[in-house]
Amino acid sequence: MSGFFKSSIGRKVAMALSAFFLMFFLLQHLSINILSVFSPELFNEVSHFMGTNPVVQFALQPVLIFAVVFHFVMGFILELKNTRARNISYAKNNGAANSSWMSRNMVYSGIAILAFIVLHFIDFWFPEINTKFIKGDWSGLMEGVEGFRYHEELVHKFVNPLRVGAYVVAFVFLGLHLAHGFTSAFQSVGAASLRKKLDKIGKAYAIIVPAGFIFIALYHHLNH
After folding, report:
1. Phi and psi based region of residue 93 (left: phi greater than 0; alpha: psi -120 to 50; beta: remaining)
2. Phi and psi (nearest 5°) for 148?
3. What is the pLDDT of residues 20-62, one digit of tens each?
4. What is this structure's pTM?
5. How far apart are CA 208 and CA 13, in angstroms?
6. Which of 63, 74, 128, 136 has an alpha carbon within 20 to 30 A of 81's alpha carbon?
7. Which pLDDT belongs to residue 102?
8. Which H or E run contains 210?
């Protein structure tokens, strides 16, 4: 098994598996965050449940962090190896003719997304860890705010237009990344025969999910 994951095919399969997990997480994350637009009370309730559930906090959250780190590290490793292979056989291979611009530049969209994740952690995850694990406050309450604090904190982050702009740009890059990554992940696990269907589903996913997050950011910015 260790030899399998050291091979090029093995790395691509591992990359695909981590991509599946992260794409599922994006859907779950969007489904919760969209509640902040339509029902702040329900958003608060669901956020408090997720934020205090021990299975989520002590089992799923570490898995998510590992998946994020693993996906980016494996992506950079594969890109490095692909770059070396292209340098060796560049005279025989016209990459521009055989692949899309996005497929050849996944590493750049990945870097942009990684920068966004750092910003997102600074905005939400680090303060949450500080509140719950450093201060020991698991109540979900905040002085001066009626009910749980989660909706108020979310809206507050989208007041600054520069931060909103950064989020919008990041989600555009996410859409570009998903436009190729969705289909590529399925191909890596042997679903190449479904390419036409996967292309359509992948394009829809790559548009709807980032657009949903952009809508949330813009909505709260314009209605704070």
Report:
1. beta
2. -70, 160
3. 999 999 999 999 999 999 999 999 999 999 999 999 999 999 9
4. 0.88
5. 25
6. 63
7. 66
8. helix 195-222
